[in-house]
Amino acid sequence: MSPAFTIEEVGIPRSIAEDVGGLFAGMMAVRNAVEIAAYGIPEVAITPEEMLATYLDENEPKRVLLARVGGDIVGRAVLQTQLRADSAPEVGEGLGASLDAGLDADQVGWLDVQVLPEFQGRGIGRGLADAIETLAREADLARLITYAVSRDAPGERLAPPTGFGSVPAGNREVRFLLARGWTLEQVERGSRFALPGDPEALAALRKAAEAHSGDYRALTWVGATPPELLEDLAVLQTRMSTDAPSAGLDEPLDVWTAERFANKEALLLDAPLQLLTAAALHVPTGRLGGFTRLSVPHDLASAVNQWDTIVLREHRGHRLGMLLKIANLQLLDEAAPGHPSVLTWNAEENRPMLAVNEAVGFVPIGYEGAWKKQLGRTG
Predict the structure, then answer these.
(1) CA angle 183, 184, 188 (to 5 degrees)
(2) Which of 69, 111, 311, 368 supports an S-S bond with 290, CB 3.0-4.6 Å?
(3) Reported confidence tier of residue 243, pLDDT bands at 50, 70, 90
């Protein structure tokens, strides 16, 4: 008979030094073990010190459940929400009137449930999912979104409505989500770029991109964003929630201000990591048309993570995606060499960005299903 398990909600420490009982570290140990088993490479692990900054962001509140067997942490469930419309910062003129209408969108939660591989099949995942979905309903959320890695396997495939990518229909996580009323909406590709890159090849790609970039030039910086660029970065970050391919996930508008952007940077830079940013300056207007960002751990054994990359719709067609990616990889080689790789995730239907990644030398490491579940409202 399998040992009984317990589920409890735990708080988020303000620092790793305040992680009493090592609960946050234990939660991250589960996350890392599951991700490594799914992708097959240790580079997908993230240290508790690096991850804690994202859990302390008050604009993205999180609730955490832990599952234990015999006192050991064997599973976790996380529910993330965003500030309700009446709590969100006002939309500035620079964001455009079209974004204002999105502030009253139904509330969405992002859910993550993971159980150590050796403890799967004992009902722990079901117990965590039941408990975290109960919290979501109590918060009157309209729908949930989750991302689940699906290792390749033979047999039937399940494809999302986008028609791009698929996941093995017989996989445990696929059957689990379908049985609980989730629908597959999108497939994301995880990709890896081995470091160091070939400097001559990168220089050639940048030269070719610059030949098509016209009135744009690349700006790069290490660390905090210069104050004079914060307003434009807030616009770009907001547009990530409206311009990035999200298929049928119905991702809500996420409004950023210069203050919120600067505050998030300060949180991240308190962690043992560095931020490297490249942005495309439209010289005639002095405004930014796109940006990309790398999160660089202090630990040289850890992978660099490619975070948000966006070129605004009105600035596309000038090979800015390629220009930005190469400029930031060159900055990485100058400012923080020695890491094994850069990891990134993109929607399978986002062919323009995948084409850039493939040309640069990124190779697939695995695929995630992006799933949605509609919830009955309590109000």
Answers:
(1) 155
(2) 311
(3) confident
